[in-house]
Amino acid sequence: MPKLQDILLLVGQLNYTWTNTESLLIYLIAGLARVDKETAIVIFLTLNTTRARIDLVERLAKMQKTPPACRSEILAVTQQLSKQAGLRNKFNHCIYSFDPESGRGITQLMRIFESRDEIKYGKVESLDDMEVERIRRSISSLIEINKTIWAIARKHDFPVS
Question: What string of DSSP letters covers 26-42?
C-alpha cells in the first residue's frame, strides 16, 4: 500500500508538472493570435480555467489563417493535455483519508452528482498501487506534452522570449 507521504509527493509533482505545462499555452496563444508574449500572458491569466484556455488555443488553431500542419499539431497536443486534466482535477478536488493501522488510502471526490430526484456526493475510491501508477504515467505524459509544446512553438517561430 502506498504511504501518505509518497502520495502527497506524487500529487505535488503532478501539480507542478501540470502547472508548468499549462503555462506553455501562453506561447501557443501568442503565436496563433499573433501577439507578443506579454499580451498572451494577460489573455491567459484573464481566462480562469484550463478548459477556457484550451478552448481558446483550439479555436485560434482552427482559424483559416493557421496553416493546416500547425493546426493539426496544436489540436493533437491540446487533446493530449485535455486527456490528462481529468486525473489532475480528481487529485486536486478530493479529500484524502488514510487508515493509520492498515495504511489503506482512499480519495473522496468533492463533487455533487444530481439526478431528477436525488443527489449523491463524495464518491470514494481506493488509493492503491494501480492509482499511484496512473499518477506516474500522467506525470510522464505531461513531461512529453511539455516538450511537444516547446517544439511546436519553436518550429512555428511563436514568441517564446
Answer: HHHHHHHHT--HHHHHH
Q: What is the pTM of this model?
A: 0.86
Q: How far apart are the first and last CA of the chain?
A: 45
- CB neighbours of 85 closer than 8 A, spacing ≥ 6? 50, 51
User: How many residues can be counted in the chain?
Assistant: 161
pLDDT in tens, the chain (161 residues): 667 788 889 999 999 999 999 999 999 999 999 999 999 999 999 999 999 999 999 999 999 999 999 999 999 999 999 999 988 988 888 887 877 777 778 777 777 888 898 888 778 888 888 888 999 999 999 999 999 999 999 999 999 98
Residues 6+ away with beta carbon under 8 Å from 48: none
